[in-house]
């Protein structure tokens, strides 16, 4: 069966999902979701952005558990300021700041623990509105799903990497793991990807501007997370 580009693009939320694995739940019905009171600052933090090459839609905060929204928190860490620490078990990413503080972002992580990257890496590359293609392993594992996307997709609103990507390298080699945005805000706080670490688009834009190339990333193991 011939699959044209238009079919692929319209099928992305269910078909590609980039750095993802498995089927996605439907977004919660906003009329049935709890509606906590959000501060004006929080609403502004996740408002639409119209200064980008592609317009970034506002986040419907009713689709995200409030505990996974961006916040500055107390965080006692032995790592230097500017280090990114990912706890895939709690579904949080921390950007270490001064005086025992950190910026905390909610994340989506690998659906299967074996898919998750662990240990130390370096951000060797950053991209705004990155292009994406499935890895050879993803194509071999699910050829019907990823084969039609083997040539990749350009950056934009239909690209599963979202508005920004941070590329993780170890010992000078690409690990093929990314910290990136997402098309599906309701997946934040869940196990959904093929190992990449996804953030809300507004959050990855914020993290991207705060994180220079060369920054250290630590993804915790289960024992590290407990400790």
TrEMBL record:
<dbReference type="InterPro" id="IPR050979">
    <property type="entry name" value="LD-transpeptidase"/>
</dbReference>
<feature type="active site" description="Proton donor/acceptor">
    <location>
        <position position="180"/>
    </location>
</feature>
<dbReference type="GO" id="GO:0018104">
    <property type="term" value="P:peptidoglycan-protein cross-linking"/>
</dbReference>
<feature type="domain" description="L,D-TPase catalytic">
    <location>
        <begin position="82"/>
        <end position="220"/>
    </location>
</feature>
<comment type="similarity">
    <text>Belongs to the YkuD family.</text>
</comment>
<keyword id="KW-0573">Peptidoglycan synthesis</keyword>
<protein>
    <submittedName>
        <fullName>Putative L,D-transpeptidase YbiS</fullName>
        <ecNumber>2.-.-.-</ecNumber>
    </submittedName>
</protein>
<feature type="active site" description="Nucleophile">
    <location>
        <position position="196"/>
    </location>
</feature>
<keyword id="KW-0133">Cell shape</keyword>
<dbReference type="InterPro" id="IPR038063">
    <property type="entry name" value="Transpep_catalytic_dom"/>
</dbReference>
<dbReference type="GO" id="GO:0016757">
    <property type="term" value="F:glycosyltransferase activity"/>
</dbReference>
<dbReference type="GO" id="GO:0071972">
    <property type="term" value="F:peptidoglycan L,D-transpeptidase activity"/>
</dbReference>
<dbReference type="Pfam" id="PF03734">
    <property type="entry name" value="YkuD"/>
</dbReference>
<dbReference type="GO" id="GO:0005576">
    <property type="term" value="C:extracellular region"/>
</dbReference>
<keyword id="KW-0328">Glycosyltransferase</keyword>
<dbReference type="InterPro" id="IPR005490">
    <property type="entry name" value="LD_TPept_cat_dom"/>
</dbReference>
<comment type="pathway">
    <text>Cell wall biogenesis; peptidoglycan biosynthesis.</text>
</comment>
<dbReference type="GO" id="GO:0008360">
    <property type="term" value="P:regulation of cell shape"/>
</dbReference>
<keyword id="KW-0378">Hydrolase</keyword>
<dbReference type="GO" id="GO:0071555">
    <property type="term" value="P:cell wall organization"/>
</dbReference>
<keyword id="KW-0808">Transferase</keyword>
<keyword id="KW-0961">Cell wall biogenesis/degradation</keyword>
């Amino acid at each position: 069966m011939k699959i044209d580009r238009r079919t692929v693009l319209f099928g992305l939320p269910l078909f590609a999902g980039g750095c993802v694995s498995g089927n996605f739940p439907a977004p919660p019905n906003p009329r049935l979701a709890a509606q906590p009171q959000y501060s004006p600052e929080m609403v502004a933090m996740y408002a639409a952005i119209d200064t980008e090459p592609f317009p970034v839609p506002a986040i419907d905060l009713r689709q995200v558990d409030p505990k996974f929204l961006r916040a500055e928190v107390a965080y006692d860490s032995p790592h230097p300021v500017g280090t990114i620490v990912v706890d895939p078990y709690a579904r949080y990413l921390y950007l270490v700041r001064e005086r025992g503080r950190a910026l905390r972002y909610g994340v989506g992580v690998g659906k299967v623990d074996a898919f998750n990257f662990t240990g130390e890496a370096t951000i060797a590359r950053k991209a705004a509105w990155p292009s994406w293609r499935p890895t050879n392993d993803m194509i071999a594992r699910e050829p019907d799903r990823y084969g039609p996307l083997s040539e990749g997709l350009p950056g934009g609103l239909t690209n599963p990497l979202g508005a920004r990507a941070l590329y993780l390298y170890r010992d000078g080699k690409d690990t093929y793991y990314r910290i990136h945005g997402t098309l599906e805000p309701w997946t934040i706080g869940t196990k959904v990807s093929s190992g990449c670490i996804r953030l809300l688009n507004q959050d990855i834009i914020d993290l991207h501007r705060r994180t220079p190339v060369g920054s250290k990333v630590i993804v915790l193991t289960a024992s590290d997370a407990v400790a």
